[in-house]
Amino acid sequence: MTAVTEILRTMDYGVAPEANDQVIAWLEKHEGRFLHFIGGKFVAPAEGQYFPVVNPARGNRLAECAEGSRVDVDKAVAAARKAFKSWSKLSGDARARHLYAIARNLNKRERFFAVLETMDNGKPIRESRDIDIPLVIRHFYHHAGWAKLIDSEFPGYAPVGVCGQVIPWNFPLLMLAWKIAPALAAGNTVVLKPAEFTPLTALAFAELCKEAGLPDGVVNIVTGGGETGALIVDHPDVDKIAFTGSTEVGRIIRKATAGTGKKLSLELGGKSPFIVFEDADLDSAVEGVVDAIWFNQGQVCCAGSRLIVQEAVAEKMHAKLRARMAKLRVGDPLDKSTDVGAIVADVQLDRIRALVEQGRAEGAVCYQPETALPDKGLFYPPTLVTGLSPASILAQEEIFGPVLVSMTFRTPDEAMALANNSRYGLAASVWSESINVTLDAAARVKAGVVWINSTNLFDAAAGFGGYRESGFGREGGREGLYEYLVPAREKTMKLETVTKCVFTTSPEVHESSGAPGVDRTAKLYIGGKQARPDSGYSYTVRDARGAFIGQAGLGNRKDVRNAVEAASAAGGWSTATAHNRAQVLYYIAENLAARAEEFKGRLRAMANATKKAAAEEVEQAVQRCFYYAAQADKYDGQVHSTRTRHVTLAMNEPWGVVGILCPNEAPLLAFISLVMPAIAMGNRVVVVPSPIDPLSATDFYQVLDTSDVPAGVVNIVTGDHDLLAKTIAEHDDVAAVWYFGSVEGSAKVEADSIGNLKATWVNHGRATHWSDPQEGQGREFLRHATQVKNIWVPYGE
Ligand code: NAI
Predict the structure, then answer these.
(1) Is residue 662 annotated as part of the catalytic site, yes or no?
(2) What gap in Å lies between CA 69 and CA 75, rounded to an integer?
């Protein structure tokens, strides 16, 4: 008799195909041709062009879809605009019912959507059935709840308007859900463009919206390629763009939207570290790697594509990995026991092959198991790459395929240096049995999502999104909703006429200073010290009547660079306790109060403010310092309710170095209103004070000096606001920039920020009433001063 162990050893997988007859029937019903979905109707493309949609696993054509032209996009935006009027006014409760109806209908057709997704994209049915579609449904249920709560949970906020949404092909329906559910919950209407490789589930979703009774024009789907996407991005009647895709296109979109006033969220590429410490449970870590890099063939923005493993266990880990890789089943995605499906399109397959070849040429060692690949379709074997230097192309570039690169480290510091040696910062996985080690790494890694002893976990209640060149903005959770809301007052804010500052460097100081021999030239303040401007020039500061009152340093690029260097070196401020920061801010408030008379005098001299107005501005500035001192340890994060046996910690983290360009008006109050929230949250700042009235900011040096503010936390460079804004916006070590000035200046800052895709907050030339506590102070400032990191911590056996 054959022993059971023998049977188990020799047993092979049979085929376990998922039935696709319903999807085939649906494709046949449409005679293989799909139109745009605009204003609740399926509409033929104005130019009559269609593009083919292919099943990447079998190579057969599934259908053809309409190619969106300018006319189609115009129609869709007009339909969304029309629908916005009533949709945004509908009660939250009514919007919630619509979202519930969508969720329920999706529930009923779960298997249909899973099969269609797999046929269109090539991902294993196991994943579309157990991960993608359940998460889609979860997103609609979760956001139905938000629709109900939006008024009470987000008082003072309004929907943005018409949202243009452009999504990629790796999670077609899931990305649609991530975009559409929060947009609708918040009262917006949308024009969404699915990726050209995978438009079919979006079109089936359009049918479902109709069945569910969603009002016409609330959701519009226009299909097409990058050019259609660009038409949506450029459309003047779109109020917000939400994009997921490559960093390269993200940059193009940032540039195209600069100065248009469109709100923007970008979820871009990644090269996420998967860090394994020597005390990790290696078998679990190996399964983690499978889910990190072979899930969806590695075509995942947050794929754990860089294994960073401690030297002592590296060989053991690699051996276990190679053994596991040999068991991965690559093949027909509709087979229920397939682990690795097809690559979405031939261009992507070519890209993966080319990158791996480049890596080989650089000396990388590639291991691929001897798994037989299907003869037809687009497949690439699971690959493990070793022998790389941290700078090599495979260690730096997003491959977007089933290719894992592995590097080793000796100490935790080295692990963090390797992990953060990337222009991206989307996600990270950390593996160790020690909670201290994992949480320390989670805090130090520059990534928007961190999974501890786990990987690729998602939930509608948790925010998802990146640091650095992985983009800005979050999707999911409370933090994600802000991307689809604006402070209601912004809708009515007036444009401000910005007075042009004239920078005269002539030495008239002596003729009118009235006090010969007294140098009244304010210097710059860099790294805790007063510094002469590199240019060697100062400019004349006049009062409101044009009379000379002093001089201020005319800062230049070099000064900004020095200031950024000083701010970068002051990293201790970001890791100091919130209590410590609060104490310093209280101290600032007290010292400013002690010098109130001096500051009032300065305001009276600079702006010819009345005695009362000057007194009020100084008092408000003091109060604002106290407010942010109080908030320093109170504007904290959340624990999101996601999965069972997980706590998901949403931490508010500082950006790092923030550039702040202050407006002309309210020279002391605006300066304080911008600098205090930024430093309260742990940022270090490079500030350009009001160019017209910089002297109350330069007087502030003494307050900083006497308040225990560590050197480099606040750096002040006076001079030409717009000129200095350029250097700050272009600087790669500045993580975020706030600009308050003209319409043109705002546009330039947004355009100049594309290098490292820094987050920008600009006023588009609109006037802020700094003295109004609703406008000049509050949580909105703190929100801009932070980025949310979601840390997933599992518990239990
Ligand atoms: P892509 O960024 O070109 O495409 C994503 C979406 O943007 C698609 O819907 C596309 O039609 C649209 N698009 C393209 N150009 C546009 C433009 N100028 N304006 C507006 N929309 C535009 O990504 P692609 O070419 O499909 O993939 C290339 C690489 O991008 C991949 O190998 C991968 O590295 C990365 N990628 C990253 C994704 C992520 O989730 N982070 C998703 C897809 C791709």
Answers:
(1) no
(2) 10
